[in-house]
Design goal:
- With 319 residues, the chain is mostly helical.
- It has one domain.
- The protein is built from 12 helices and no strands.
Length: 319
């Protein structure tokens, strides 16, 4: 019994380290690719081709002074960066990485991940609002308003594969695709496109970086955060990035499944890296929308597409 509990702790620690390292690595990939597409260099000096720059940024922020605005709600201002990091990290344990079944798997875990995404936006809103700064408050309100536009299609796009597979477990969706040697990218292409668009909005990436638009409201909702708190927010954003990429991989690309099952983690890395590259290319190609354009565009275009995908699934055309 003791050995079994010890082995579980080792697995949890290994997955934790893997997710953190992947989050920092994918930040570097994103920054380098976007820089090249925009005719810039990107990270250069910290490690080969600047690969250690995300780690260096975290270390630098940890060493800087941690300032709390005098008028801020000190309790919320302190706790929310921790929560912002812990939420995506906890959801990542539900994603299958080294096998078709995740380290933590239960019927309904997909609903838990949806709940985590909602909590992340609530944390963003409260973090900006608790700062009592006009820039942070505007960013917080924008984040909440933007969620009203993308949240419904985001949820429907995640539910589509689950409905077709007959399970609300992420591992169950991966196993369904593996048993049929296919993936939902081919069966539900509309849902894949909708999930990709909404993922950009969930991550506050261009063209949906309205809550933290540096040319308008400095850094938006996290303008007043510094030092250790800003380091946690940066790490939380990286973890949310890998969570979104991993979820798309699991729901639409078969997760760690592949034609050669000897190294499932290799398939996971290849697929998630591909998703990261696609997301990076998309947010490098567009300019920022206005908040009214995002909300109206989501409701007029993306929501109908998501509903159409659900209708096709119910008609037996999506799985």
């Amino acid at each position: 019994m003791v050995w079994g509990e010890s082995w579980t702790i080792v697995l949890l620690a290994a997955h934790l380290l893997l997710f953190v390292l992947l989050a920092l690595l994918y930040e570097w990939v994103d920054r380098k690719l976007v820089a090249r597409l925009q005719n810039r260099y990107g990270p250069l000096y910290a490690g080969p081709s600047g690969i250690f720059q995300p780690v260096a940024d975290i270390i630098k922020l940890l060493s800087k002074e941690d300032i709390v605005p005098r008028a801020a709600d000190r309790l919320l201002f302190t706790l929310l960066p921790i929560l912002y990091t812990a939420l995506p990290l906890s959801a990542l344990f539900i994603i299958p990485v080294t096998a078709q079944t995740a380290l933590v798997s239960f019927e309904g875990d997909l609903i838990f991940i949806m709940f985590v995404f909602t909590l992340i936006i609530i944390a963003v809103f409260l973090a900006g609002w608790s700062s009592v700064s006009r820039f942070s408050s505007v960013g917080a309100v924008r984040a909440a308003l933007q969620m009203l536009g993308y949240d419904i299609p985001f949820t429907l796009a995640m539910i589509g594969p689950a409905v077709a597979a007959g399970t609300l477990s992420v591992s169950g969706v991966v196993e369904w695709q593996a048993s049929r040697a296919t993936c939902f990218l081919w069966l539900q292409p509309i849902g894949f496109i909708v999930l990709l668009i909404c993922s950009l909005a969930e991550l506050d990436l261009i063209p949906f970086d309205i809550p933290e638009a540096e040319t308008e409201i400095v850094a938006g909702w996290f303008t007043e955060f510094s030092g250790r708190k800003l380091a946690l927010i940066r790490l939380g954003k990286d973890l949310e990035f890998i969570l979104v990429a991993s979820l798309i991989t699991a729901l639409y690309l078969g997760g760690p499944s592949g034609w050669w099952m000897a190294l499932p983690i290799l398939w996971f890395l290849i697929k998630t890296t591909g998703v990261v590259l696609v997301i990076s290319i998309l947010h490098a190609l567009f300019a920022r929308f206005r908040i009214d354009q995002v909300v109206s565009g989501m409701w007029r275009l993306v929501v109908p597409l998501a509903i159409l995908q659900v209708i096709l699934i119910k008609l037996g055309l999506g799985g």
